[in-house]
Amino acid sequence: MDNQYNYYNSNDDLNSNYQYGGPRPGGYNGEQPEQQKPRKEKKPHKNLVKAAAVTGFAILFGVVSSAVFLTTNLVGQKILGLGDYGKTTTASSDKISSGTSLSTSSSVVTSDVSDVVEKVMPSIVSITSMSVQEVQSFFGGTYEQTNEGAGTGIIIGKNDSELLIVTNNHVVEGSDTLTVTFDDQSSVEANIKGTDATYDVAVIAVALDQISDDTMDAISVATLGDSTKLQIGEPAIAIGNALGYGQSVTTGVISALDRSVSTTDTQTGETQESGAKLIQTDAAINPGNSGGALVNVNGEVIGINSAKLTGESVEGIGYAIPISDVSDLIQNLMNQETKTKVPENERGLLGITGMSVSDAFSQQIDVPAGVYVMEVSQGSGADKAGMTKGSIITAINGSSIDSMEALQEQLQYYAKGETVSLTILVPQSNGEYDEQGLDVTLG
Asked: What residues are annotated to the active site?
């Protein structure tokens, strides 16, 4: 948004013309005087006294006027802050810039974020997810339907064999294949490293041997900022794959901090409370921006764009996950083993019957969110590990679980005979829950 400043710069000089005058001696008018009889001359000292008096008053008037004028200017400049237009304009520009390049004219100041975008864009990727679902036909049969989704990711690091990218969990959830497109428009396939449904964060990985040398030269790792130091009103820049068209940029400000937001899954209708207190911004965040970067004027990532508020009466309300709130979580997801899906006939089973407990539902029945274990199959891996009815599964191998769908999603990566580590909450006699770890060998 351009800010227009209209200054009234009056550079007119004040010219004061002081005319001094008095009677010209003798009344000379250019003609030769006639000879007249000698007359008694008047004493000259009276005329001189009058002339001196008039001259003195004129000088005194000029001095007083000048003093008043100078005093008025001094008071205006020192007390009221008027008159020193050049100094005021410079100070205002310095305060507004704060690291942002500014284009200025005599009446308009425009914030230019092109340098920031040029710095950040090589670390932003587009993510395309493909999933195949069985859909019931009108005649009662079923058929497979392919769905395509679009999102954004941020390159946050690499290890010896992989390039690591952070995004939203809802961008990659339920996908069968993931394709990453870099800033130079080259595309490669990616696999999931780790996910967290509660905080809506996921890390995906691209094998380095799949990335060309030219692409490696064109991309960069993002610089993470400190979201704990954000101030309301400071500039914010959102970069992401809006509507799947490719990377685009929107600008705005930090509108509010520490927002609690509930999101609704458009497919299941379930309501989910965000695990983090979110950043609110008026920088436009649209479908496809999810997982993209919210950056400050220094080009540092301060948030992960996550959601927007929609409605006929709503305008300019988007949300981002504060980067400092999830930095430890992201580090944990980066250190997990990369997951590849196991063929369906080879996948392992826990051996339970469960029910989703969403955040909204958990508050109503006073039960923690996760997967409520309704029944444990006798002789199953869960039974042998000691799982009991009434327990609540909240994580598998470090990835949080908030629904049966999320649990089934994670089990796609593990084969029969593999052992997984579950985090469960076991009910106690006092109504509280005790958190325990449980290793289960899948059947």
From this structure: 170, 200, 290
